[in-house]
Amino acid sequence: MAERQEIIKAVELAGVVGAGGAGFPTHVKLAARCDVVIANAAECEPLLANNQELLKYSADAVIDGLNLAMEATGAQKGIVAIKKKYRESLAAIEKEIQKEPRISIFLLDDFYPAGDEHVLVYDVLGRKIPEAGIPIDVNTVVQNVETLYNISRAVKHIAVTDKYVTVSGAVKNPVTVNVPLGTPFKKLLEMAGGTMVRDFLLFDGGPMMGKTASMDSTVTKTTSGLLAIPAGTHPWLSKKINLHVQIIRARSACCQCRECTELCPRRLLGHALEPHRIMRAVANGISDVTALKTALICSECGLCEIACPMGLSPRAINVEIKKTMQQKGIKYDKTPALAQMKERAWRKFPAKKLLTRIGMDEYAANHAALMQTKIEVDEVTLPLKQHAGVPAYPTVQEGQKVEKGDIIGRIPEGKLGANLHASIGGIVARIGPDYITISNR
Ligand code: SF4
Ligand code: SF4
User: Fold this and answer.
1) Domains of the chain, with CATH numbers?
2) Which numbered atom of ligand 1 lies nearest the CA of 260?
């Protein structure tokens, strides 16, 4: 097996970032020391199947990546955290770890948000990450399974050029595809047979935490799903929220029933976050600064919206408060969380119930299996920033010929970020202020 520094260097060169979240550069995460690495295979956002499909066919590479991550961080233990119900993926992992005494499996129940790092680390290890903290604060590193797959490839000198993406929601044939980074969303929808409704929003990510996107957007290193969200469903309505109206409604309609707080997964873990208090503070003209500051530890999971009988969105208010506080440089100090609430045992929100509550259950009937045919893409547009940190700068020029895997963007020395590589072979057709387009038409 490669040495620690070799692994970290290879991962940095290959441009590996967290594939399941904010795109934090993986080489930085691997430079930490810890005693456990958790492979996050919870895939808790409804309708997504990209992690399950990857595991079914490439569990060997994921387990290899887990071993490499353990080697880099000095961890003695690796744990694959996966939902019991993902039977085929689970069987593939079980087969792969037969000769891996340091790696075990932790079976998760089917609830949302089982994959939230605070929730996951507590459920798997019983370790409580402090409020505003990260897993390394409790001697743990968590990596999404596709990130581990990319670590395995990086050590074999294969750069991150492709992404597993589930195309689902109101589409004719839900499917998971492995496509070059920069593939237009329009093309992904075609692969799923097009949409079944006329009025919809496109989501980059899951229905609960995904972001709205346009047909012209393209696949990045953090795109896990592309969903067609029909008008009138909860995720669609949640993107139509007008903040000004929400604040007026917080004043007039919030009855302080506390339903949002009772269901908040961070609150149930013992965090100080109480969305009903934030709503009260907003309604009262922003006087309870202590309550408002707790918006900074909100994960934006959206369960409070599901819980609210008045149709309010504490999440949207929290997002706005966070933005304002971050602009003012206000931070939330890492604070040990209190003991988990005993109610947590029966308040974990079942994934099936969530699908019904958000009005998307009819779209979950067909599993988005992996498309087995090779996918040809003749033009890709790659944003220079698809990771946490600073954008990459182009290292190529318009008209230059590139091969798949060639480096086309680098990070300035000493800055946080990730290298960018050509995801198809062709000619550099355009370089914009924040993107590079490669074409082989
Ligand atoms: S979005 Fe709502 S439920 Fe989720 S962590 Fe934030 S306050 Fe809690
Ligand atoms: S659930 Fe809705 S009405 Fe009840 S306290 Fe929370 S925001 Fe207010």
Assistant:
1) 4-155 (3.40.50.11540), 161-233+359-377 (3.10.20.600), 243-350 (no CATH), 380-441 (2.40.50.100)
2) 3
